Amino acid sequence: MPVTERTTPPFRADHVGSLLRPATLRAAREARAAGRIDAAELAAVEDQAVLDAIAMQEEVGLKSASDGEFRRTTWHMDFIYQLGGIHQTSGKIPISFRNATEAIDFETAAIAVTEPVHLPQPIFADAFTFLREHVAAGVTPKLTIPSPSMVHYRGGTAAIDRSVYPEIEGFWADLVGAYRAEVAALGELGCHYLQFDDTSLAYLNDPAQREFMAAQGGDPLHQHETYIGHLNEVIADRPAGMAVTTHLCRGNFRSSWAAEGGYDFVAEVLFSELAVDGFFLEYDDERSGGFEPLRFVPPGKTVVLGLVTTKSGALEEPAAVRARVLEAAKYVPLEQLCLSPQCGFSSTIEGNVLSYEEEVAKLQLIVGVAHDLWGEA
């Protein structure tokens, strides 16, 4: 049942952003940390790894390409630490991940807001420029950055120095200003596909995460509304021709997750009020709930269904993926749907538990199913 082919992001066959780090890249990072190579040598390895990743994405038939987040250690903190006024502390934030067989304890560095938040210089500008200069004609370079809500979610009001921001509104005003400057700078660099990754909006569907938010000094019942409002402020004046999406997931570390629950708690406000062009939604297993919340998606918005898991190498059956897309189409028209993996393949440098060949096979599967459903070449 062919439907209109999409010429602007998000595409019928798309992916979230991060890719498995090659062994050569991980070895070079370790060598750099140990002082065995210099920054230029590491950059050369990164450049080649990104070129190989671009070629792979083009070969499988994707219309967008990321740099795999190869120049980062994590999907979010490499960005957040470059915001002026935000610093890493010696404290740790414990996060409990789990998978089908075990629990994994993970610690991320705590942050502190000790000065007015600002943007000293555009973040990831060089990385995006390299990507833009090396994608083939007809392929859209895609950049992913953490949503501003992630800056708050990592530490809450407790991480903000009250001598700098006696009222939380001042913090949000400056953070939004820094992000607006970033969006404008990326537009000047030719970024036409920008994605805000936001685990908080998925986490808050989990009652345990709402309790965590309350302990951080936030409002567990309305925090998602605050986050959505501020992201709307960030993208209100985005450059003409820039498509903006957001990606929601419940944690992705070494094939494990941190939260559970369908989208019901946030769905109505999320879909009806967040002014993005598309939503990348995790839907690879029962942790994500059913498709019923998609009934709130208004005309003109696109939902990218994350039906192919990145948490294992087992390859889904094309017919089963196709059937789930059609099931979702009972709640939002097929014309407004696209297909992707449920999350990145390597949200952190460690990566998920699957091989490069399995990663490629999953992307090929997505392209194939998209062609069958929408006629996407």
Arithmetic mean pLDDT = 93
Count, helices: 12
Q: Please tell me the total number of domains.
A: 1
What proportion of the residues form beta strands (DSSP E)? 15-25%
CATH class reads: Alpha Beta
Report the helical percentage: 25-40%
Model description:
It is a single chain. The chain is α/β, with parallel strands linked by helices and 377 residues long. It has one domain: TIM Barrel, CATH 3.20.20. It contains twelve helices and ten strands. It has helices at residues 23-33, 39-60, 77-80, 125-134, 148-153, 168-188, 200-203, 207-215, 223-235, 264-273, 318-328, 356-374, and strands at 64-65, 84-98, 103-118, 140-141, 143-146, 193-197, 243-248, 278-282, 302-308, 337-341. The strands form three sheets. A six-stranded parallel sheet has the order 5-6-7-8-9-10. Helix 11 (318-328) links the parallel strand 9 (302-308) and strand 10 (337-341). Helix 1 packs antiparallel against helix 2, helix 9 (223-235) runs parallel beside helix 10 and helix 11 packs across helix 12 (356-374). The radius of gyration is 20 Å and the shape is globular.
Quick structural summary:
This protein is an alpha/beta fold and 377 residues long. The chain has one domain: Alpha-Beta Barrel (TIM Barrel). It has 12 helices and 10 strands.
